[in-house]
Amino acid sequence: MRLKLKLLKLLIVTISTTSFSQNAMNTDWANLKKYEKENQSLTPSSKRVVFMGDSITEFWKSNDSTFFSANEFINRGISGQTTPQMLLRFRQDVIDLKPSKVVILAGINDIAENTGPITIQQIMDNIISMTELAQTHKIKVILCSVLPANAFYWNPKLQPAYKVIELNEMIETYAKKHNIAYVDYYASMVDDNKGLQKKYGEDGVHPNVAGYKKMEALLLPFLKD
Q1: pLDDT tens figures, 60-85
Q2: Cβ atoms of 168 and 145 closer than 8 Å
Q3: Torsion sign (Cα): 205, 206, 210, 216
């Protein structure tokens, strides 16, 4: 009886492990497929700039497509993504495209715990890893502050305002120490409650057209040679 019980437990573990492995193999956790075909179709360019980020970056193109089409700007934002996911796809979506510059705007979804709890230091470590990968391949890095947010409509139990401030302080300190360009969106877009000004974004997280125009005005001087 004990032998049968042990065999039954072993069978259950084996089935569970196999099922988990198959699910893991079938799940594109970092969404590596999203830009695969677009990446393959790109022709070489010495002036290319890649934007790496989450929904704030992805929606930028749909809100102001001319900002990208009028310049050699490549949008590689993916909605909902956190820094470990971006780091996993950084080689194929940035390095392999051989840009002259990369604009990194990341961290808000980590604070929102989209892929689980994570410390501010761990978020920063992922941003540093992306920065170092880019620099190793002679790509100039432009680090951006996280936009202000004092609430998440999809995760209302969290209070992100001070974590956003803490992460931005870490990004700015790191950028200054290593002579890396730093774009401070936060200071120009925050309201009196440490949230995003309504004129720049109605949902408190994502910019509207006016918000993106403000970001462009702050960013463009850093993209000029």
Answers
A1: 999 999 999 999 899 999 999 999 99
A2: yes
A3: positive
